[in-house]
Amino acid sequence: MDIRTGNGFDVHALGAGDHVILNGIKIPHNKSMIGHSDADVAMHAITDALFGAVAQGDIGRWFPPSDPQWKGASSDIFLRKAVETVRDLGFQISNVDCTIICEMPKITPHAPAMRENIAGILNIDLDRVSIKATTSEKLGFTGRNEGIATLATATVIKQ
Ligand SMILES: Nc1ccn([C@@H]2O[C@H](COP(=O)(O)O)[C@@H](O)[C@H]2O)c(=O)n1
Ligand SMILES: C[C@@]1(CO)OP(=O)(O)OP(=O)(O)OC[C@H]1O
């Protein structure tokens, strides 16, 4: 059995706006994420964890920020490509774990919807998708509500 793990980390700034999109879930907020795509920082970290698990580079290699095609794109496009790449290489996705770092918005009330969405895209059972959150105790850019960071880990298995 061939078991591999990948990690992902991403940051997006917060700017003017009235909602954020995290793991594909639209959450009303007093700011919005800034990015070339829809800036779904959580989904980007999971995407990078999957690409990393099979040593296929990172999200920017597959979807360059310089390519106008990805302007405003829904980040599930990127995640679906990572899932397809993992499977094309003969691996199954075992599980993913994701930690969103921000003071606001509060993530816990939205975690069930995020898990459902990610499990659906990855086509794995709900109990294989973990979504967590932490503040940074008001320290740093996340503590000042200037941006949101996300860490993710993915494990893949080839029988
Ligand atoms: N944006 C966030 C941040 C945290 N949570 C939940 O609060 C718990 C306590 O956070 P600390 O940073 O004080 O450890 C954390 O474990 C999460 O359950 C949240 O929902 N959204
Ligand atoms: C997702 C991509 C797509 O152009 O752009 P952004 O939305 O800016 O996100 P980031 O994580 O900064 O970079 C990766 C890019 O591939």
From TrEMBL:
<keyword id="KW-0414">Isoprene biosynthesis</keyword>
<feature type="binding site">
    <location>
        <position position="141"/>
    </location>
    <ligand>
        <name>4-CDP-2-C-methyl-D-erythritol 2-phosphate</name>
    </ligand>
</feature>
<dbReference type="InterPro" id="IPR020555">
    <property type="entry name" value="MECDP_synthase_CS"/>
</dbReference>
<feature type="binding site">
    <location>
        <position position="144"/>
    </location>
    <ligand>
        <name>4-CDP-2-C-methyl-D-erythritol 2-phosphate</name>
    </ligand>
</feature>
<comment type="subunit">
    <text>Homotrimer.</text>
</comment>
<protein>
    <recommendedName>
        <fullName>2-C-methyl-D-erythritol 2,4-cyclodiphosphate synthase</fullName>
        <ecNumber>4.6.1.12</ecNumber>
    </recommendedName>
</protein>
<feature type="site" description="Transition state stabilizer">
    <location>
        <position position="135"/>
    </location>
</feature>
<keyword id="KW-0456">Lyase</keyword>
<dbReference type="InterPro" id="IPR003526">
    <property type="entry name" value="MECDP_synthase"/>
</dbReference>
<feature type="binding site">
    <location>
        <begin position="36"/>
        <end position="37"/>
    </location>
    <ligand>
        <name>4-CDP-2-C-methyl-D-erythritol 2-phosphate</name>
    </ligand>
</feature>
<dbReference type="InterPro" id="IPR036571">
    <property type="entry name" value="MECDP_synthase_sf"/>
</dbReference>
<keyword id="KW-0479">Metal-binding</keyword>
<feature type="binding site">
    <location>
        <begin position="10"/>
        <end position="12"/>
    </location>
    <ligand>
        <name>4-CDP-2-C-methyl-D-erythritol 2-phosphate</name>
    </ligand>
</feature>
<dbReference type="GO" id="GO:0046872">
    <property type="term" value="F:metal ion binding"/>
</dbReference>
<feature type="binding site">
    <location>
        <position position="44"/>
    </location>
    <ligand>
        <name>a divalent metal cation</name>
    </ligand>
</feature>
<comment type="similarity">
    <text>Belongs to the IspF family.</text>
</comment>
<feature type="binding site">
    <location>
        <begin position="58"/>
        <end position="60"/>
    </location>
    <ligand>
        <name>4-CDP-2-C-methyl-D-erythritol 2-phosphate</name>
    </ligand>
</feature>
<feature type="site" description="Transition state stabilizer">
    <location>
        <position position="36"/>
    </location>
</feature>
<comment type="function">
    <text>Involved in the biosynthesis of isopentenyl diphosphate (IPP) and dimethylallyl diphosphate (DMAPP), two major building blocks of isoprenoid compounds. Catalyzes the conversion of 4-diphosphocytidyl-2-C-methyl-D-erythritol 2-phosphate (CDP-ME2P) to 2-C-methyl-D-erythritol 2,4-cyclodiphosphate (ME-CPP) with a corresponding release of cytidine 5-monophosphate (CMP).</text>
</comment>
<feature type="binding site">
    <location>
        <begin position="134"/>
        <end position="137"/>
    </location>
    <ligand>
        <name>4-CDP-2-C-methyl-D-erythritol 2-phosphate</name>
    </ligand>
</feature>
<comment type="pathway">
    <text>Isoprenoid biosynthesis; isopentenyl diphosphate biosynthesis via DXP pathway; isopentenyl diphosphate from 1-deoxy-D-xylulose 5-phosphate: step 4/6.</text>
</comment>
<dbReference type="GO" id="GO:0008685">
    <property type="term" value="F:2-C-methyl-D-erythritol 2,4-cyclodiphosphate synthase activity"/>
</dbReference>
<feature type="binding site">
    <location>
        <position position="12"/>
    </location>
    <ligand>
        <name>a divalent metal cation</name>
    </ligand>
</feature>
<dbReference type="GO" id="GO:0016114">
    <property type="term" value="P:terpenoid biosynthetic process"/>
</dbReference>
<feature type="domain" description="2-C-methyl-D-erythritol 2,4-cyclodiphosphate synthase">
    <location>
        <begin position="3"/>
        <end position="156"/>
    </location>
</feature>
<dbReference type="Pfam" id="PF02542">
    <property type="entry name" value="YgbB"/>
</dbReference>
<feature type="binding site">
    <location>
        <position position="10"/>
    </location>
    <ligand>
        <name>a divalent metal cation</name>
    </ligand>
</feature>
<dbReference type="GO" id="GO:0019288">
    <property type="term" value="P:isopentenyl diphosphate biosynthetic process, methylerythritol 4-phosphate pathway"/>
</dbReference>
